[in-house]
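Dear support,

I submitted the protein below through the web form. The confirmation email said the job was done, but the results page showed an empty box. After a refresh the structure appeared. I'm attaching both so you can tell me whether what I see now is the final result or a partial one.
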Amino acid sequence: MLSYKYYDTPEGQDIFKKVFVTSKYAAVAGLGVATYDILMYSHPKGIFNTAYRYAFFLGPMVGMATAFTVTANAAQNIRGKNDVWNYFLGGAMSGAIFGAWYKSVPVGIPMAIVLGAVGMIKKTAIDNGWTLVPELTTANKSIRSVKHDWTLVKDIEELKAWKTG
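What the results page shows now:
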């Protein structure tokens, strides 16, 4: 279950596994945002208030991820079509949850449209094989790598025109 990727199975299948994957990423992001809020902004006093601040961020973020996954896959199963509109509906539901989180309809409607459009772009990228966020490549060198000789050609003693003193 932990090694499962979202696109391992076609849309509309293994919805529980897909919900787990998206919720996992949302929970990690929520933990980061909540920790930043607690340490840098809100400074809650006591365990209960700290847990409340974590829940304030984790709940809606996991809910948005779950709403996207369930809506997009349910739309696939109901409509029988695998197109960008399923992802638009999923994004719109995530935006609706975002608006409910902020308790503001003027925030929720634009977020529903924006997240729906982002979902459509993601679905188009998946269908066409585009890479929206490339994988990070790690550096093979360290601070000690300067001690290694990375030149293409070694020095030829006969061609050196200088004298050592």
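Response: this is the final, complete result; the empty box was a page-load delay. The longest helix spans residues 47-79.
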